[in-house]
């Protein structure tokens, strides 16, 4: 029996998304740019999908542009966002706990002459509005901060920061990477105050290879992918219709946040009973729990659990082989980082999955004590 508890790395495609993708491949397979009937049918489907994703985001349909993934959305927002405002300044504010899609975009901009202030979060991994305002300069042209951290589940109050930035007279761009937040914590793009929001399909039970960038109405952002005039000239390339159809179908599903949050509470209880010395980060996201078993190596625990059909990850799936920059930034001791695991819950998880994890970790501990 499999117990998949790595839903922050990716999720299982839900049946509704798989069905929608199949329909877009086998029936509505026209190119939405073609003007004949088959193309018009595909265009209609594309428009409907955009409306569904926009509805889930709390945005207008015209504010949603489909991309290939969260990484592309981040790259586009940050690189083109900063470059297009370079006449006003070259300073950017971000944090030390961003995903690599953001970090590498910022490194790229530094090579182009931008200066980046990377804010340190508090011990819980949260970036405060005060620290953002404290870092603000007259030449700041971009602020980019993630809403939910993919390793710890820490939630940064993006609406509060947007409000404070406005109050401080900031006129640059505000981008948030909401890849781990979308459909997991409630927010509405039209109330959030961010100009640009990145989201991704495969974190919400759609398929891999689709994402979207919310571009607030009136915000000018030059294209990143050049070529045809798809997506109203904002993102070239024939739209990935099966993936987009899956994305929209996934957006229509009830995310069951309360159920996931109660599973997280059960998880904390079960783990502290099974492994009394376990450390857990107390964060607000309902679906991510970062734990650590000091004295252990994450890889050893992962292998031990895998043999019992339990899948969890070391930290972010994209950072294999390196010590987590996120856990370092929140001041976790190296020994604790080396024994850290991330558990990512989804609405398809059950208490049995959590029991299997708790029994696996308790088994590892007993084995070690018996040696
Ligand atoms: N941002 C965050 C916070 C993520 O967790 C991820 C993926 O793990 C990404 C961006 C990249 O998204 P994608 O895998 O769709 O490129």
Tell me what you see in this structure.
The structure is a single chain. By secondary structure, the protein is α/β, with parallel strands linked by helices. The protein has two domains: 3-12 and 255-370, Aspartate Aminotransferase, domain 1, CATH 3.90.1150; 15-251, Type I PLP-dependent aspartate aminotransferase-like (Major domain) (Aspartate Aminotransferase, domain 2, 3-Layer(aba) Sandwich), CATH 3.40.640.10. 42% of the residues lie in helices and 14% in strands. The strands form three sheets. The chain has a seven-stranded mixed β-sheet with strand order 2-8-7-6-5-3-4, with helices on both faces. The chain has a three-stranded antiparallel β-sheet with strand order 9-10-12. Strand 9 (279-280) and strand 10 form a beta hairpin. Helix 10 (257-274) runs parallel beside helix 14. It is globular, with a radius of gyration of 21 Å. The chain starts with a strand and ends with a helix. The model has no long low-confidence stretch (mean pLDDT 96). The site of pyridoxal-5'-phosphate (PLP) has 14 residues, from helix 3.
């Amino acid at each position: 029996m499999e117990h998949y508890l790595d839903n922050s790395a990716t999720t299982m495609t839900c049946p509704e998304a798989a069905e929608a993708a199949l329909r877009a491949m086998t029936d509505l397979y026209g190119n939405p740019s073609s003007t004949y009937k088959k193309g018009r049918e595909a265009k209609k489907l594309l428009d409907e999908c955009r409306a569904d994703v926009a509805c889930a985001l709390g945005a207008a349909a015209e504010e949603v542009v489909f991309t290939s993934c969260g990484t592309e959305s981040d790259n586009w927002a940050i690189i083109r966002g900063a470059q297009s405002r370079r006449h006003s300044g070259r300073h950017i504010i971000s944090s030390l706990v961003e995903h690599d899609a953001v970090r590498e975009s910022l490194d790229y901009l530094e090579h182009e002459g931008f200066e980046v202030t990377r804010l340190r979060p508090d011990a819980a991994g949260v970036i405060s509005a005060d620290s953002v305002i404290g870092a603000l300069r007259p030449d700041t042209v971009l602020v980019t901060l993630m809403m939910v951290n993919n390793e710890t589940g820490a939630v940064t109050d993006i609406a509060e920061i947007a409000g404070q930035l406005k109050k401080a007279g900031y006129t640059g761009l505000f981008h948030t990477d909401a890849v781990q937040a979308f459909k997991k914590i409630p927010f509405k793009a039209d109330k959030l105050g961010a100009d640009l929001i990145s989201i991704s399909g495969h974190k919400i039970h759609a398929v891999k290879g689709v994402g979207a960038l919310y571009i607030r109405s009136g915000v000018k952002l030059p294209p990143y992918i050049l070529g045809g005039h798809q997506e109203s000239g904002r993102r070239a390339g024939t739209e990935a219709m099966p993936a987009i159809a899956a994305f929209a179908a996934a957006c229509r599903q009830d995310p069951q946040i309360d159920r996931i949050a109660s599973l997280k509470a059960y998880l904390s209880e079960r783990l502290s009973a099974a492994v009394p010395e376990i450390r857990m980060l107390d964060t607000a996201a309902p679906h991510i729990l970062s734990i650590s078993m000091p004295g252990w190596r994450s890889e050893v625990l992962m292998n031990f659990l895998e043999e019992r059909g339990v899948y969890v990850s070391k930290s972010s799936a994209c950072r294999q082989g390196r010590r987590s920059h996120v856990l370092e930034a929140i001041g976790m001791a190296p020994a604790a980082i080396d024994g850290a695991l991330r558990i990512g819950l989804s609405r398809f998880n059950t208490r049995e999955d959590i029991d299997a994890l708790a029994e696996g970790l308790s088994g590892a501990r007993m084995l070690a004590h018996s040696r």
